[in-house]
Amino acid sequence: MKHRPLASRLFRLDPGVRYVAVNQRGRIVEMRQNPRHPSNNPSVTDRMEELLVNPAVLDLTRRRGDLDLDGIRYVVIRYGPQFQLLFPYRDGHLSIGVELETDVTALAHRVARVLRLPI
């Protein structure tokens, strides 16, 4: 299935959305920083996060959720200057960097509705 860019749509969901990345089958198919929010770190670390860290986090939480909790819907990580929302998405994941002032649970529900993901 061909990837349609999501960043512009997701940036419009909330002014606190800083960053959007999509990994499909181990390849980053989209990675965009919101022009309203400068990056908190070098782009090379974002790439490593999308290729290594986020797939591992989702794999571990998915395995736990699949045992007896009806799967995984999304994961929220709190880094120092921002939240990171991770969603299993098609053949990989969707990653969204979010300002600390944002209601991440409400945003996660809006993202899930827009992308027709289970919530």
Q: Which descriptors would you attach to this protein?
A:
119 residues; alpha+beta; five-stranded antiparallel sheet; 29% strand
Total domain count: 1
Taking strands numbered 1, 2, ... along the chain, how are they ordered across the largest sheet? 2-1-5-4-3
CATH class: Alpha Beta
Given the C-alpha coordinates, what overall shape results? globular
The CATH architecture classification is 2-Layer Sandwich
For the CA atoms, what is the radius of gyration?
13 Å
Summed up, the helix count is 3
Fill in the CATH topology.
Beta-Lactamase
Arithmetic mean of pLDDT: 95
Distance between the termini: 22 Å
Low-pLDDT stretches = none
Find the structural class using helix and strand composition.
alpha+beta
Please give a structural write-up.
The protein has helices spanning 7-13, 43-68, 104-115, and strands at 17-24, 27-33, 75-78, 82-89, 92-99. It is of the alpha+beta class and 119 residues long. The chain has one domain: Dynein light chain 2a, cytoplasmic (Beta-Lactamase), CATH 3.30.450.30. The protein has a five-stranded antiparallel β-sheet with strand order 2-1-5-4-3, sandwiched between helices. A hairpin with a 2-residue loop joins strand 1 (17-24) and strand 2 (27-33). The longest helix has 26 residues, at 43-68. It is globular. The two termini are 22 Å apart. The model has no long low-confidence stretch (mean pLDDT 95).
